[in-house]
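Pair request: fold both.
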Amino acid sequence: MAAVVGIRAWPRPVVLACGTLLVAGCYYGAGRLGLSQRLAADGAVVTPIWPPTGLAVACLLLFGPWCVPGIALGALLVIVSLGVPDAETVGIVAGNTAAPVCAWLMLRAVGFRVSLSRLRDGLALVFLGALTAMLVSSGAGVGMLLLSDKLPTDHLGIVWLAWWVGDAMGVVLVTPLLLLLYRARLPPPSVRWTEAVGLTVVVCVLVPLIMYSSVSVLFLAYPLLIWSALRFQLAGGMPCALFVSVMATVAARQEAGSFGRLTEVETMMKLQAFNGTLGLTALLLSAVISEQLNTRRSVERACHELVEALQHLNAGGPGTSGTSGTPRAPGGDKP
């Protein structure tokens, strides 16, 4: 008892300040990671995958609205790292902060579960959290650049599309992985460890060969993705999809493999289409398999409980529900 005397919990403002700085630092690190693989398209610089949006949505789903200041501070730090902030910086930061908040609010409204154990959760994350909510950040960012005359009108469509798809892919690919890592527990040793290691080796060997092949064989990545999702659900499907997407982005940036001999716009469109279909396939297929497995477990549990109840009833035998005592003669008198 004496060992705990004098120990006090940290004040709430200190906890919030530390949490804000932690979220901002993670957002900034994810932003720098995304900028390291940016592409040039029609004179504009775009990021095929923008991880900070996925990080921001995951933080809001897991920890709530106190993460908003950290998201805004992280977005500001990313913009400052690119150059001196201008007047439009406020609008871009506001858009990058409002989009994850809108995603969080819409997902809460439809009863989203962070376990992603239902198909409806995967559909909600894709169509509400990614495709719909990220219209806010892309619209605000492109609008501010257009108002400041930093974006020519003939580049408006391609820059907006790249911004929107990059933010959406960040949510589709990064958010499920972070939600999975937050609740991950090391499974007991089993035969599936051998399969998991074998799958990892196969993916790490074949995916670079697929991406850097002079023949366009990007479709060969889908059997690996399906194998991962069928056998390991989100724990296999999302890391595989993210790795394939990163390798495809690296190959596109180097103009190698299937992305060689293409114009900048063609490279961006092909890469984003590939990443988009890959992320959707991994997320929705994993959600479908998880939902089926949960349904089967529920049915098995209900059947087991029913069998136990029937065994309990049969164990009593006939006549156990009657009254006990000395049997009577037909006339009602004792023999």
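--- second member of the pair ---
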Amino acid sequence: MESNADGARAGKAVPAGANRWTMRDVMTFVIFNIVIIMVTMIVKMAEDAVLSPQNTFFVGSWLFPLVSTPFYLVMADRIGKRGVLSGSILLFGILYTFMGGVYCAPVAVVGAVVGELAMWGRGAYRNIVRAAAGFFVYWATFACYGIVPYLLFRDAYMEQLGAYYSASDVAAMVAQYTELPWILLMLALFAAGTALGAVVGAKFLKKHVRKAKIA
């Protein structure tokens, strides 16, 4: 019997309840998001250990999505239902909120809405290009976590950073998160990292996951 996943990939109609999450979907969502967050945090700690704050901008912006996109694509393909992207954005936003960035919560809500609208339509989560494009919204939201504090409480935030970083580092960070050319470069790096990660993830999906009928 053809599964809902196979029907969605073939563009056929699926039952009305096909978008209802199962316990397996929830477990897949939780496990893969933990992996994505842990991988990102490990890369972030390694990056901070070897690079100055003003130079992490040029590495993390493409490296974070590169290492996490393959995991996201597998998760999206295995679940294949509405809410995967918005839930992932909200989960990451909640984490950053509890880490002290209260402003991250409303940013995450906006990102979740935009992300889910971008994924509207049948079979979107099992379309690798669309899934990768949606995951870029995840990282664009992440970029906003760095931009918003400079916009809302710049002086207080700069004073806080000054207690940990040199004046040159703080000046560079302010420019990178407030000046349009730098912001556009950051988004372009996020897009490049997501695209490259999608290439890796697509090969793994086609060669292993779908071939083994895991998804």
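Observation on the second member. Residues 22-46+62-209 form one domain.
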